[in-house]
Amino acid sequence: MSSSPDQQRSAPTAPTAALVRAAVIGCAALALAVLTGRPLIILAGLPLLMWTLVAVARRVARGEEHGSPSPAVVSNRRSLEEGGTAAVSVTTAPGVLTAATIPLQPHSRFSPRHGSAAGDGTLRLRVSAQRWGRIRVGPVHVLVADSLGAFRAQHRLPPLDVQVVPSSTVLEAPVEVPTPIGVSGVHLSRRRGDGTALSEVRAFRPGDRLHRINWRVSNRTGVLHTNATFTEQDTDVLLVTDTIADVAAAPWSGEDAPTSLDMTIRATSAVARHYLTAGDRVSVFDIGHLIGPIPPGTGPRQLRVLTDALSRATREDGRARPARRLRTIRPGTLTVVCSPLLHAESVTQIGALVAHGADVIVVDTLPPSIGDVSVLNGKPLRLEGKVSDRFWPEAWAMRRMLRQTTVRELRESGVPVTPWEGPSSLAPVLLSLSAARSAPRMRRS
Fold this sequence. Notes:
Blueprint: E1 9-10, E2 14-15, H1 17-36, H2 40-62, H3 64-67, E3 72-75, E4 79-81, E5 85-91, E6 97-101, E7 108-111, E8 116-120, E9 122-129, E10 133-137, E11 140-145, E12 151-157, E13 160-165, E14 187-192, E15 198-203, H4 215-221, E16 225-233, E17 236-241, H5 260-277, E18 281-286, E19 294-297, H6 299-311, E20 334-339, H7 344-355, E21 359-364, E22 382-383, E23 386-387, H8 392-412, E24 417-419, H9 427-431, H10 433-437
Parallel strand pairs: 4-13, 17-18, 17-20, 20-21, 21-24
Antiparallel strand pairs: 1-12, 2-12, 3-5, 5-9, 6-8, 6-11, 7-9, 10-13, 11-12, 14-16, 15-16, 18-19, 22-23
Helix pairs in contact: 1-2, 5-6
């Protein structure tokens, strides 16, 4: 678990107000008994004085370092998925009263609810992540005291960074691609060669493998026959993300409604997991600058690299940068573009990919609440109890209508466009991609 470079800050151990009061009252009772000559007055302050002496004696017997043990904070998980939970433990020493408080962070929930807990020696809090990214748990403020409550000290522990990866959504879609271009994999090629899918039974030719001889047909016809199969190949899958702008959902859709960046990250993670599981090579190219380019790779290691890069995307800097452009691509590469289709740079990049011979699918990641005309019923829209006079819904409704022209032009040029609605979003598109490839395409110079 990585932590912040901030050093641990500790306050010196100090007596509590209870110890001071007990010492003052006990000594005052002893002095008053001596001055007035009434020994019975000592009985009033003797219990408090004895408690004070026992607390001081225990502290001296244990030593200074044991009187105020240094707490430590650890987490049982370095990373978790959206909706997952990590346990954060604050440990001091047995018999030490411990109280800890963690500042509440956005897109996370704590148990106990307000991020505070108290106990004996070891505390356990749970952090639930509601959104991908990184959650900074801390700084943790810890208060420790001895079992008698006579001495206490405050500590400020550095925060912990918990990585939250996008949820592992499993696409409800086939793994077939129209143009397998590799040498080994699960996709069925149009070419005949070594594989497991039967193409035909034909007469034996010199060079055929002996283990593929079909003895039943050979015995029946008296001529040696062999089984011909289709070649099984893999493919290159390029995921293009559009992170130029993060469009928030409409105010009336709720606080947990995903933004366009949320939908882009989750769609990219789901598609990558889908094809990496099938053994294909997956790479990522970001038109914006939130996600660094990820070279092609396969297997679980590539999935870890990809999800780590996605979880590090953040909009905290807020700096505007020029859009990137992908210059070349291998013809036949299956390309999935996740974009809200609001910027000319992203549409231009889609046209360049089509012109280079890629099989392009566009996943629309604009939140559905943006431009929703169903909220416009001729009445003023109330947001947080106030009448909106900025025509925000009307403006986005007009922008969505203009965007429909872009979507229609892409579909007319043979590029399928489907909104991201969860695991089943790409199933119909992938099934009809072969037909889309045969449609006329617009070639741009």
